[in-house]
Design a protein that fits this description.
Number of domains: 2
CATH topology of the largest domain: Metallo-beta-lactamase, Chain A
Oligomer: single chain
Bound molecules: zinc ion
Number of helices: 17
CATH class of the largest domain: Alpha Beta
CATH superfamily of the largest domain: Metallo-beta-lactamase domain
Order of helices and strands: HEEEEHEHHEHHHEEEEEHEEHHHHHHHHH
């Protein structure tokens, strides 16, 4: 993969706050997976887009206060993900402490439904949180993810809209556009006086994250359309996932990410219309070389394969093309039938051979027959440990944060279970 000096430079600025233009600040994250906050200083107070993770809120407020003491007039949620809305309490408390009014909070009308859903699925979210963002404490006990049950208190927007809203404040105009993308409640903010676009997670420093394996449906086509619309506005500044982008780079990055999303969208639709199922589609969709090699579009967090899944499941049911899988037997029973025919020691030996040949993925499949089919036997522990090692190796090979964490966390749990 090519090294892009501009990307490297922007990465260097991660963690550093920047004054992008008069009255425009980028306030950085202190958590490696959160996005920055955008701040516009108006004559009537501050407008802030995104507040960081819950634990980051106080630090973001402190950083903003190094520049300006004016009240927080309006806080905008780019979408309802926890690393964008979580820090809000610190902003409200700061206004309170200084005797300022409570800030107005703007979000898309679906943000409230998202918060309700998060509360409904709190246990599930802790579980997938452990898989995607594991910490040593979570792994300490297999049920560790169930600790810290204190529920986060969501602050719901008091001002919502459906497709578009705008407002003027203290010499600036704020135009808010709905753009289903990473979430159904995603919006982006345009400030024409500075040609500034604040994008939340619409742009990250890698492949856009549609089709996250742990999350619900996302919106590949609308995401492409939004990025195309943003590029048409020829922004001078973008504040988004990778940090702050300026001028030509800001426009180019939107265009290129949009191209990747549109390409996969069109390919999956074309193959669906040819009667293909997911396995064939995964094998057939190949990115054009310039997109595949683009340092800004690598599958380090989102992944092109995830995007394929996202488009596929949006337009199809869960059937995978094999009628034998419509009402399947438990996979352990299927594996036990294979074990009746093949010595499990032979299977593990073959898995190790495949591992040695660099066919880690195939080795995993072969090992799984033993893991699933040999419970309560002597060889089970050996198979679990082999699987753990294969998962750790595969995590390194795929080089994707989300898939890698799922594999590494699962490996840690397998090791724990087998000890
Ligand atoms: Zn997000």
């Amino acid at each position: 993969m090519k090294i892009d000096p501009e990307l490297e430079q922007i990465r260097k600025m991660r963690g550093k706050d920047e004054v992008l233009a008069p009255n425009v600040l980028k306030i950085e994250r202190s958590n490696p997976v959160a996005g920055p906050s955008g701040v516009v200083i108006t004559e009537e107070g501050l407008v802030v887009v995104d507040t960081g993770m819950p634990q980051e809120g106080p630090d973001r407020v402190r950083r903003i206060r190094e520049h300006m003491q004016a009240p927080f007039h309006t806080i905008i949620y780019s979408h309802g993900h926890g690393d964008h809305v979580g820090g809000i309490h610190a902003f409200i408390e700061d206004n309170e402490k200084k005797g300022y009014p409570v800030p107005r909070i703007i979000g898309h009308e679906l943000v409230a439904k998202r918060f309700d859903k998060y509360r409904m699925l709190a246990g599930r979210r802790r579980y997938i949180g452990m898989l995607q963002f594991p910490t040593p404490e979570m792994l300490e006990a297999s049920e560790g993810w169930q600790r810290n049950r204190r529920e986060y208190q969501y602050v719901y927007p008091d001002t919502t809209f459906s497709s578009y809203m705008d407002f003027k404040l203290g010499g600036f105009t704020f135009q808010l556009f709905h753009a289903p993308a990473e979430t159904d409640d995603t919006i982006w903010v345009w400030v024409p006086e500075r040609k500034l676009a604040m994008l939340g997670d619409l742009l990250i420093g890698g492949c856009p994250n549609t089709g996250n394996p742990l999350k619900e449906q996302r919106y590949t086509l609308e995401w492409a359309e939004a990025l195309e619309k943003i590029a048409e506005k020829q922004p001078d500044f973008i504040i988004a996932g990778p940090g702050a982008l300026r001028g030509r780079l800001a426009v180019e990055r939107c265009q290129k990410a949009a191209r990747l999303l549109r390409f996969i969208q069109d390919e999956v639709v074309r193959l669906l219309n040819e009667g293909k199922w997911i396995e064939d589609i995964l094998a057939e969709v190949k990115l054009p070389q310039d997109l595949a090699e683009d340092p800004w579009l690598q599958g380090t967090y989102g992944h092109p394969v995830f995007v394929i899944h996202d488009v596929y499941r949006r337009y199809t049911g869960w059937y995978d093309g094999n009628p034998g899988e419509l009402f399947p037997s438990p996979s352990a029973e299927v594996a036990a039938e294979i074990i009746e025919l093949v010595n499990p020691e032979r299977l593990l030996e073959r898995a190790r051979q495949l591992q040695g040949n660099g066919s880690t993925q195939l080795a995993l499949h072969v090992t799984d027959f033993v893991v699933k089919g040999c419970k309560d036997t002597k060889i089970f522990k050996e198979a679990m440990l082999l699987k753990a090692g294969l998962l750790e190796k595969r995590a390194g090979e795929v080089g994707n944060f989300i898939a890698g964490n799922i594999m590494r966390t699962s490996a840690a749990l397998l090791r724990k279970d087998s000890s």
